[in-house]
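Incident log, structure service

09:12 report received: a user says their structure output differs between two submissions of the same chain.
09:20 pulled the input from the user's history:
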Amino acid sequence: MRVFVVGGAGYVGSHCVKRLVAAGHEVTVYDNLVAGHRRAVDRAAEFIEGDLADLVKLKQVLAPGRFDAVMHFAAYLNVGESVQQPLMYYRNNVANTLNLLEAMERARIKRIVFSSTCAVYGMPVNLPITEEMPKDPINPYGATKLAMEWALRDSAGAWGLGSVALRYFNAAGAAADGTIGEDHRPEIHLIPLVLQVALGQRESISVFGSDYPTRDGTCIRDYIHVDDLAEAHLLALERLTEGQAQAFNVGTGRAYSVLEIIAMARRVTGHAIPAVLTDRRPGDPPELYADSDKLRRHYGWDPRYTDVEEIIASAWGWHRAHPDGYGSA
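09:34 re-ran on a clean worker, output below:
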């Protein structure tokens, strides 16, 4: 297929582009490079620098007959920032994505895989989280993603859009061949932040909250390798049905606390990695981990990386080789 990948220069997007190219698809990346990196884009993919806010350019690029499907990764994703600046998140994650859907409808493109999040569930009533559980986000980030899931559902009935929303848990790791990895500016995710301490780029790692109702008082999360996430996107793209809106959890079902991740990173890297306990962040649920049986049943998806130390090791290999991220020589 000819696939238009919005946000394909970012962390998850670039890994999905790499997987799409390997599977023989023709890929065009559309990214404003605010958070992405040109060097992360597979050389076999066409690259267009552009912003979803520019509806005129978007409609020009999405000319009728040019593309068969779309993948969407172009969202802001910092939970704490979304609490502080909700309008910025609604403008980018909702208004700009509606521009994309408008351009798709005009171009008669009826296939999209959408990167959603486990944050749509808010404080889950039970664990592990299944797709049927109530959606009640506790932060603007999750609320904007849920709003777009509703837009996808309504578009299915209105103009036959086929969509799959993949509700990520915590993406982590780096490509198996070491070519691409995670480089946010500033970095916001636990594993790369811990590895920056091991590299001597930070003095310590901050642990936000040590009084949660969990086994060691710190938040517990489900970590999914980014290559396994990319495989889920490929399967969704190739098997989605026009006129239907579906949603799937993507996680391993295994849960680890912040302190457990830090301890494993110490073993992987051989560094002490000092940790400093500090106050909770607003918008953080105590515990989130997935039931991904629905994705397994529908698509035959099965994660290759179920050992979180192996996930950390893949990230460590990339960060050691690229201590300055994509700015490294």
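09:41 both user submissions now match this output. Likely a transient worker issue. Closing.
09:42 reviewer note: Residues 86-107 form the longest helix (22 residues). The first strand starts at residue 2 and ends at 6.
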